[in-house]
Amino acid sequence: MARPLDGISVVDLSAEIAGPYCGMLLADMGADVIVVEPVGDNQERDNPAFHQWHRGQRSLTLDLEQDKGRSLLGRLLEGADVLLESLPPSRAAALGLSYEGLAARNRRLVYGAIPPWGDGGPLAERPADDAVIAAYSGIHGDQGGVGKPPAYTVMPIPSYSAAFHTAYGICAALYVREMTGEGQKVEVPLLNAALSFQSGGFLDLPDRPAPVPKGRWEQPGYAPVYRLYRCADGKWIFAACGHAEFWNKLCLALDRVDLLSDPRFANAPWAIAAEDDNRAALIAELTARYATKPADEWLRILEEGDVPAGPVMALGDMYADPQVLHNGMVVEIADPALGPTQQLGTPVHLFGTPGGPRGPAPRQGQHTAEVLASLGYTGGEIAGLRQQRVV
Amino acid sequence: MLDHAFDGVRVLELTTFIAGPYAGTLLANLGAHVTKIEPPTGDPSRILIGAWQAWNKGKHGLALDLTRAEGQQVLYRMAAQADIFLENLRTGVLPRLKADYESIRALNPRIIYCSVSAYGRSGPLSAKPGFDPLSQARSGIMQAQGGTGAPVFHRIAVCDYATASLAAWALAMALFHRQRTGQGQYIEASLLNSGLALQAANLFRFSGKQALPRVDDPTGVPLGIDVTYRYYRTLDSWVFIGVRSAREWNSLCHVIEREELAHDRRFNPRVNRLQNAAELTSILEESFPQRTTAEWMEELVEHGVPAAPLHYSHELFDDPQINRNGLLARFQSADVGRTTQVANPVKLSATPGLEWGPAPAIGQHTDQVLSSYGFTPGEVAELRDKGVIP
């Protein structure tokens, strides 16, 4: 079946996580992604995830430190639909990458940039990776809570967010190009991506008292009714009573309807999060109640009572989870370097043009000759470039 | 020429909480005309004042009683003209309203219909209600953050935001496809899928895979992943250092005025630093409390060491880089007064998008939206008389 990005060529110069992950999403959906690798050792390949990010793609080795390498890249970009890079602005400029310069030779080019901070501004050249941006943007501080140690987040939130937002921006630009014939620059700095994922909390309302004081935070959850609890068997469950209807159902399911008329909890579910004594009292009530039955039994009772609740599971459980498998979220790909692998499926499903992973990652430089030939280089020229270690 | 990427794209939304609504806001940021359809009593998630405004920025508010047949007729008439239909209500609600994909497609074959759900619209869990933390819990995210201790809830609704941004991607791709072929289609995004997408690197499994390292404080809160890639306490706060290369290590030694360590065999090359992490940790834990975070940052930046001060989001409204990137929008909202909130994160140079305005009050644009969908003033008055719109 047709894929939505059939016929779209992408040249990927990006590193680390965000750009390569974005390239993976585009490749799953049909784009012909050429990953540009150095001629010698490619440190990006030290990270095994490289083999997932670049699945179903082609590999071209190219020495961008040489003039000939950069001019070859220019030739490649003359015919490309999309460029992906993740460089700070000075480094992009040193490689001769500017949207204006490239657009002069290919006005249809969509230039996707994921710099750490931005294409300018006071921090643009400050060295940064995912964790530096997560720290700077308040993710770790907010997660830890004011006055407590910061909580480093295991997930690379800014990078994953940037991968998704950049794929969005690139497809929006491709849509525009269908009407105007013109490409454009799409930029999603890691800093922007970090803020987008924080939008619900990264907010100031000077005319309203804050519903929960800034920095008020506990690791198990937001509020007594939206929180992790430990059951009699030591297993954890999360009950998420996001509105009043579910608070009522929760009290029924827990056989504690008395809580509904308890004046201390009159402001449940949300506002009680701000009231220290009552919050602590309700947490104590619920903690004691959940400690009376094992997790599976509570989950059955809560389900019968239509209370949103679920188990804490491990990532390792996902490979055999019926819903995960139903959704096609684990795929098996035999990788020439790593052997049999299990990888993420394509996380959105377009029923008319479904897409999906198309095969393993290429060997370094596997498609160099093929790509150069398609640009019109003769066998002799390719041999010459190889001798000079341009490719 | 287009001024904004999604000029003329009309989106109808039946959404609540984050995953559906924020996808609509991402589309509005790039110029789509997004109508948020709420019951006359409002979206139940309005209870989250402030956050609700962030997830519904830039939309037009239409209040409509969909429990009434006349209200459903209004929905059908609008859906027949819309480009995108976006919903994240519980599984089963849209079919009952005869507003599921098949029903809407019968009215509008070009419709792009995006269904956002907790677990998927089919499969063993599809009937269950779900919120972000249930997906965080089920997909392994909470356990990964908790490490060997208790599971930890992420304050950021990561599964919701991932779903919103992935749904926006899928919608942009479907618009592109429709522009090339004339074909609309049905799309699904789910919190469960997004929970896995947020762990893509960890989910990737092969023989011989190593577990991820981490460094925890004594209470089990992760501070980083290794001795030179973690937070350290300073005189007044904390600082994060992200040292990996030999050059960065040399610079760090210079900054902490311990140049002799740069060539100390115990700590070189990097693999020795990891092997002798306990010794090096003591050294760094003695060094960093000697100065303030601001003093350290000045030195670390000057010498090219990747580093960041500990920040809280509420301290960053005046941050020069954040403001320079155009990441904050300031509005006067009809129902909550002044707001400062996150603006469009996706910068398109030729068709940049726009700030339509703050999130609407309930039904704020009812007349305007109905008029733009071809309802006459007489029809609007009649709907109001019948109590279908407030």
Describe the structure using short key phrases.
heterodimer; A: 391 residues; alpha/beta; 6-stranded parallel sheet; 4-stranded antiparallel sheet; 37% helix; elongated; B: 390 residues; 5-stranded antiparallel sheet; 17 helices
Shape estimate of chain A: elongated
Helix content of chain B: 25-40%
The CA-CA distance between the termini of chain A, in Å, is 35 Å
Give the strand line-up of the largest sheet of chain B: 3-2-1-4-5-6
User: What is the rounded Rg of chain A?
Assistant: 26 Å
Largest sheet of chain B: 6 strands, parallel
Q: Give the uncertain stretches of chain A in residue-range form.
A: none
Beta-strand percentage of chain B?
A: 15-25%
Helix-strand category of chain B: alpha/beta
- Would you tell me the structural class of the helices and strands of chain A? alpha/beta
Computed CA radius of gyration of chain B, to the nearest angstrom: 26 Å
Q: Work out the strand percent of chain A.
A: 5-15%
- Report mean pLDDT of chain A, rounded to a whole number: 95
**Assembly form of the protein:** heterodimer
Question: What report would you give on this structure?
Answer:
The complex is a heterodimer of chains A (391) and B (390). Chain A has 391 residues and is of the alpha/beta class. In chain A, 37% of the residues lie in helices and 15% in strands. In chain A, the strands form 3 sheets. A 6-stranded parallel sheet of chain A has the order 3-2-1-4-5-6. A 4-stranded antiparallel sheet of chain A has the order 8-9-10-11, with helices on one face. The two termini of chain A are 35 Å apart. Chain B has 390 residues and is α/β, with parallel strands linked by helices. In chain B, the strands form 3 sheets. Chain B has a 6-stranded parallel sheet, sandwiched between helices. A 5-stranded antiparallel sheet of chain B has the order 8-9-10-11-12, covered by helices on one side. Chain B has a two-stranded antiparallel ribbon with strand order 13-14. The longest helix of chain B is centred in the middle third of the chain and has 24 residues, at 158-181. Chain B is elongated, with a radius of gyration of 26 Å. The chains are: A alpha/beta (391), B alpha/beta (390). Chains A and B meet through helix 6, helix 7, helix 8, strand 6 and helix 9 of A and helix 2, helix 6, helix 7, helix 8 and strand 6 of B.
